[in-house]
Specification:
By secondary structure, this protein is of the alpha+beta class. The protein has 3 domains: about 5-285, no CATH class; about 295-410, no CATH class; about 415-475, Arc Repressor Mutant, subunit A, CATH 1.10.10.410. Helix content is about 40%, strand content about 20%. Strands 1, 2, 6, 7, 8, 11, 12, 13, 14 and 15 form a 10-stranded mixed sheet that branches. Strands 5-4-16 form a 3-stranded antiparallel sheet, with no helix packed on it. The chain is elongated. The chain starts with a strand and ends with a helix. The chain binds zinc ion (ZN). Zinc ion binds next to loops.
Length: about 475
Amino acid sequence: MEFEAVIGLEIHIELNCPTKLFCDCPNRPGDEPNRNTCPTCLWFPGAIPRLSQAALEKAALLCLGLGAEIQPRNAFDQKVYYYPDLPKGYQLSQAHLPLARGGGIEITDENGKLKRARIHHVHMEEDVARLVHEIEGRTPISLVDFNRAGVPLVEIVTEPDFSTPHEAIEFLKALRAQVRYVGSSECSMENGTMRVDANISVRPRGASEMNTKVEVKNMNSIRHVGDAIAHEIGRQSASVQAGEAVTLHTRLWDPDKKVTLPMRAKFEGPCIPDPTVPTIELSREWIDDMRSRLPEMPATRAARFVAQYGLSGEEAAFLSSDPDTAGFFEALTAEGIAPRMAMHWLATQLLPAIKERRQELHNAPVTPGRFAALLRMLSQDQINANAAREVLLRLFDGDQPPAAIVDACGFRQVSDPEALGALIDKVVDAEAAAVADLRNGQGKAMGFLIGRVMQASGGKANPKIVRELLGKKLEAIL
Ligand SMILES: [Zn+2]
């Protein structure tokens, strides 16, 4: 029997506002444990939560960026569950009246066909504390860090619109790009500011009923989400084939063994309306004001890049998938660098060099101004491409202008026809065999001769002029 998968995603995103959701403690979970706490986020009895305006705005922008409808009336509930990371016994979450409903993202399936993945709703909630399990001597101990308790989260719940790991991966990449654009979160799965749970079920291909789903957690990269989904589809298909029933439960992805393993269930209770946080009433004007603050979103920006700079759809999509990359590209073109050159050098040289150094484009020492100065020297034939690559690497070591590095390293390109002519004469004399090959119609020998001239110049010759002069010289003697 052939099976198809039905997949839905739940994505938790940590908002990057300065304080926690219901108190003024700093929103910095990575600080020294239990530093950022107060009676409200330690959940002392009687402490009254106060909703952060900044968190509400960041959450609303995120929703509007995804095309979701902000609900004029939304409210918090107490989601009851009992676990040491939540000593008050309930989490404040929006179970009944979420912040937004609807929206979605256009993705492409394996065959390149456009498909819309719909969002069911987006709600706000507080994060729980972090448990740290250690061994002290021979005794296992568990510690609790409340820095993360009360950190503002949004949860995006999709419709079960995905049928392959590829579609889920496409969605997550696009979602991450959109949320970064509106500036609500860095969405790093490695650092835990974006966490993904996947709900997966299988059914005979073409069937319409929904079978029991299994939830998979604990993936810390988008690639792991794809791997976990692929594994789970295989595992469930085999069980159904063998006549076993799939039971509703949660599994953890083990990235080392590349399998999903069953996880012990937490006690989960009811969701009851919370009486301490007032209902949130949002006026039409407030929602319109938020909408007016939305920046140009990735799809719109990509379309503009195609029209304005003559890039291909793929190049434009690559550049606009990250706001920093798109901004850097536009800064280069504003400096007068040709769009195609800017795109090429950014994608193939600068971004890989930054990644290798584990830096970020927005605070790397290679600013758009310095990079443009380097590319300008290249386009004006003052240096060749090899030298430009060398200088780029040295731009990371300090703040010298590229021209100073070029001079200090003697990279300035030799374009003087007289000097190059002399080198060419020498090489042609020395390489009689290659010249004979050319005479016999072996075109490869031309590349060889150019290489020899470049070598003789210590890599500094202008290859365009070498090719031109060598061509003339050979024409004369062949
Ligand atoms: Zn607090």
